[in-house]
Amino acid sequence: MRYSPESHLFAVERQSMVGRQLRSRGIGDERVLQAMLRVPRHQFVSESYQNQAYEDHPIPIAAEQTISQPYIVASMLQAVEVEENDKALEVGTGSGYVTALLAELAREVVSIERHELLAAGAMELLAKLGYSDVQVLNGDGSLGYEPAAPYDVIVVSAAACELPRVLISQLNEGGRMIIPIGPPDTQQLQLIKRESRGLHISLREPCRFVPLVSG
Ligand code: SAH
Questions:
Q1: 131 DSSP 8-state letter
Q2: DSSP characters over 149-185
Q3: Helical H runs in the chain?
């Protein structure tokens, strides 16, 4: 990429985000940290929010949705332990930011977004940034995406009332899913591991996501 003072400034802000918001709060997975150093988060928000892109909070995007706070994104990605050869499914593409991070970490990425406008915007941006291998689909991700199942990793970026069984059924044995569960004020991230003996569920951080809309 050509040098420009602006992209240098954003790179400095990214360094600071990774140091102050992620490492200092216990995110230690180097692959996740390096991916977050690489992906230009400011490109995933509108121009009027670019100066806030690396701050410690969520940011509004189109269609009344939000791009999650960097720490929550890092914490979710660290929890699912993405490996190089993994196939990942994301539910709730939104801006495409998490999709780009998954593309840095996994071999194959499928992402589903119910808003046509957001899906189209994310697809265009991801291609422009060189993430041309990811598959962004417009549809209801609460049903997962059976044609490409099973997945090693599923990341759900919108909150469900209860664990969607159909998503669990699309996890590989050894697969991991991270999903926010609960009503707006009392959501919590849950990590689900599908093991040969059954499901292992652990409760993680409290959080606040837009709802997973079904149908
Ligand atoms: N990871 C995104 C976060 C977007 S917010 C980012 O980095 O920008 C969550 C997204 O989930 C919204 O765009 C919303 O439209 C989408 N969503 C909600 N319910 C959905 C469903 N059933 N299927 C697919 N996408 C859904």
A1: -
A2: --EEEEEE-SBBSS--HHHHHTEEEEEEEEEEESSGG
A3: 5-16, 30-38, 70-79, 97-105, 116-128, 165-169
Interatomic CA distance for residues 215 and 143, integer angstroms: 9
User: Ligand 1 within 6 A of 164 CB?
Assistant: no
Task: State if residue 160 touches ligand 1 by the CB under 6 angstroms criterion.
Answer: no
Mean pLDDT confidence for 136-141: 98
The two tokens of residue 188 are 């919590």
Q: Decide: 143 in ligand 1 pocket, CB within 6 A.
A: no
CATH of domain 8-207: 3.40.50.150
Name the pairing type of β-strands 66-67 and 135-138: unpaired
Q: What is the domain partition of the chain in residue ranges?
A: 8-207
Q: pLDDT, tens digit, for every residue of 83-119? A: 999 999 999 999 999 999 999 999 999 999 999 999 9
Given the CA of residue 212, which atom of ligand 1 is nearest to it?
19
**pLDDT at residue 198 is higher than 70:** yes
Distance 196 CA to ligand 1 centre (A): 30
